[in-house]
Structure formats: structure tokens, C-alpha cells
Design a protein that fits this description.
This protein is α/β, with parallel strands linked by helices. 40% of the residues lie in helices and 16% in strands. The strands form 2 sheets. It has a 7-stranded parallel β-sheet, sandwiched between helices. The chain is globular.
Length: 377
């Protein structure tokens, strides 16, 4: 079998769920990119066994290696390496786990490996120091980063060495994308006077900040509603954590102006976005490449977001960026847009136009395929 016929193996990290029920942002990006790829028929996604994997691509469940390989993560990586050896693909894409690279290279030394970074590399095991990142860079064929921010974090502290060895040229930026034909403004009804937060109810996502901002804004927006979509995880069956209880208590102050839906499947959350006027993404961490931002823009919401991580790259001049982690600042921006319909409509149109032109999944997938082409033919 020549290189133009061999598979491209996409290895998810242990505990990623490759099915609609419970899929996180990384899995959603992998699935969407694969469906639009010109290599779709050659792609094999590998991950933990699931009951109903996405049907659009071939899925190969990973059987963990024997107990003597150590912890579950090590057993998973070893099991994946053995399956990849048997599959003999043209290229392996490892998502978010640089710690798998060394094990893979021992088992399949002649197969090129592409490392795909969705999160801050300096937070990853075996990748935190410049020396560790340099060593991995020397062993992989290429690295794909989901934003310039992540690329900068990867090369931080080793730029000179990487340039001297020609390693920086291995590192590519491919922004995430969404299907802007599927995620689009609802065309058969006016947009609702709703301001949405869509995301997990964890401190990093700023859900408490959103609730506090909504409480500050509500008196000036008596005919608007503030809607929080999400839970701590990807289910509504868990008991609330202390942080969630704080968020709930704050949202209850809104009375009839507030709504907490709990976790919703992605399709339902997108439906709510398609008819809402505004979406707020008040992240308290350096978002690598926020899918929430891209989805809100594609849905035609006016976007208010924290100026963090990769979000400014995504939004450009098509949304409102807030510099401070301050509920009053977010409340002020909500009120300014809500009370000025022409300005609100301007930001809605700008967001949708930017998503269609620059953040569509077909653009993103084509950019990724251009990186793959060198190795997969």
C-alpha cells in the first residue's frame, strides 16, 4: 500500500469521548475537521471505547495494555501504540498529549507524528519546561496549534534554539472552525432579548462573573433575560459543587429574568444561540481558541468576551473585548449594546460575517490538510 492510500490515525487523549453524548470541545473539533477533510475516507479516529461513536468517520477503540505498563494513562498510550503499529498509517496525529510521543516513537519510529495542541503546552505533563518542549519538537514531524497564542506559549523560552535548528518552521497555526451553514442565525423570527452564557460552570469559564454582571445589569434591562447554559461537566446528574452553588445563588437574584438550563446537547445549545441577541464569554483563563466564541459569532450573536488567550485573534474587530475581570465592566457593555439596537445589530452582522469569512470549518480543515499533505500525500 503506497502512502497515498494509507490511513491517517488521529489519537485522542485518554478520557476524551468520541460521541455526541458527552463530547467536549476537543472531540467536537476533531470530528468536525475530519468530516470536512479531503482525507476523510483515510482517517481513523482512535480513543476510549464508546457506545455510539460518531458515524461520519471510522472509529477504532483503544484497548489498554496489560496492568504491568503502569497507570491507566500509560496503559492507554501503550495500547494505542500497538494498534497504530498494526494499522501502519501514513501519519499519526496526537491530540493534546505530548507525553505519548516518546512511547509512540519507540513502537513506530518510522511513522511521522504530528502533535496537535488545543491547550497551553506549558500546562502539560512532560512539556512544561523549555528543554522538554525542545526535545518533543525534535521528535515530531510537525505541530499544529489552535491559535497564535498557543504557538507563542510553545516557543516561549526556546525561540532562539528552535530557530537555530529550524524547528520553529514545524509549528503551524490552524484556528478552529464551525460549519457556518449549519450554525447560523435563525431567519424566521426576530432575535430574542436574551443574553447567553454557554459553557461549563467552572471558575475558568467565568460563569460566576457572568451571573454577577447580569445582576448589575438587570435593573436597566427589565425586558431582557439572562440565560446560563451549562453544568460542571457534560451531564446533569452530578450534585452541585460549591462553586456551582455560588453561581446558582447569584442567578436566583434575577428572578424571572434569569434562566439556568443545565447541560444541553450541543445541537440544543446552538439552537438557543441562533435566536439570542447576545453572547458573553467572560473567561478567567487564557482561552486557547474558544469554540464558544466561534459558535456565538456564527450564530449571529453580538459577542462580548474577555481579552484573553486566543479570543482576540478570533474576534478581531467583530466583537467587544473587555480588559478587566470585573462584573461591572461586563454589565456596562451588555447595557450599552442592549439599549442601542442599531449598535447591537451592527455587532451581530459583523460577528456573522467574520465567522463566515474566516472561521468556517471548511477553511480550517483545508489549512490542516495542507499540513498533512507533506506526510500523507
Amino acid at each position: 500500500m503506497n502512502v497515498n492510500e494509507r490511513h491517517i490515525a488521529i489519537l485522542l487523549s485518554h478520557r476524551e469521548i468520541y460521541q455526541a453524548d458527552g463530547a467536549g470541545a476537543v472531540t467536537s473539533c476533531v470530528r468536525d475537521m475530519a468530516v470536512c477533510s479531503r482525507y476523510r475516507e483515510r482517517i481513523v479516529v482512535m480513543g476510549d471505547p464508546v457506545s455510539t461513536p460518531f458515524a461520519e468517520t471510522r472509529f477504532l477503540p483503544v484497548t489498554k495494555a496489560a496492568w504491568w505498563y503502569g497507570r491507566r494513562t500509560a496503559r492507554y498510550a501503550q495500547g494505542a501504540a500497538s494498534a497504530i503499529r498494526d494499522l501502519a498509517p501514513a501519519l499519526v496525529e496526537v491530540h493534546n498529549r505530548p507525553s505519548y510521543i516518546e512511547r509512540l516513537k519507540k513502537v513506530v519510529p518510522h511513522i511521522p507524528v504530528l502533535l496537535y495542541l488545543h491547550n497551553d503546552p506549558q500546562s502539560m505533563r512532560g512539556f512544561k519546561t523549555p528543554a522538554e518542549r525542545l526535545r518533543v519538537l525534535q521528535h515530531v514531524a510537525a505541530v499544529v496549534c489552535v491559535s497564535g497564542h498557543i504557538r507563542g506559549r510553545l516557543l516561549d523560552g526556546l525561540a532562539a534554539q528552535a530557530l537555530d535548528q529550524g524547528l520553529a518552521s514545524k509549528v503551524h497555526v490552524v484556528l478552529n472552525g464551525v460549519d457556518t451553514a449549519m450554525i447560523a442565525p435563525c431567519s424566521n423570527q426576530p432575535r430574542r432579548k436574551e443574553i447567553l452564557f454557554v459553557g461549563r460552570l467552572i471558575p475558568e469559564k467565568g460563569s460566576l462573573l457572568f451571573a454577577q454582571a447580569a445582576v448589575l445589569a438587570r435593573a436597566q434591562l427589565p425586558d431582557w433575560r439572562f440565560v446560563m447554559i451549562g453544568a460542571w461537566g457534560f451531564t446533569n446528574n452530578e450534585s452541585p459543587r460549591e462553586y456551582e452553588r455560588q453561581v446558582i445563588a447569584e442567578m436566583q437574584k434575577l428572578g424571572d429574568q434569569g434562566e439556568m438550563t443545565g447541560y444541553l446537547p450541543r445541537r440544543e445549545a446552538l439552537h438557543r444561540l441562533s435566536s439570542a441577541a447576545m453572547s458573553v464569554i467572560p473567561s478567567l483563563w487564557e482561552e486557547p481558541c474558544s469554540l464558544a466564541v466561534i459558535e456565538a459569532m456564527a450564530a449571529g450573536c453580538a459577542v462580548i468576551a474577555a481579552r484573553r488567550g486566543g479570543s482576540p485573534e478570533l474576534i478581531g474587530d467583530a466583537g467587544v473585548l473587555v480588559d478587566q475581570d470585573d462584573p461591572a465592566q461586563f454589565a456596562e457593555r451588555m447595557v450599552q449594546l442592549a439599549l442601542n439596537p442599531p449598535v447591537l445589530e451592527h455587532w451581530q452582522h459583523r460577528a456573522r460575517a467574520r465567522a463566515s469569512q474566516s472561521l468556517d470549518i471548511h477553511h480550517a480543515s483545508a489549512a490542516l490538510d495542507a499540513v498533512r499533505e507533506k506526510y500523507a500525500g
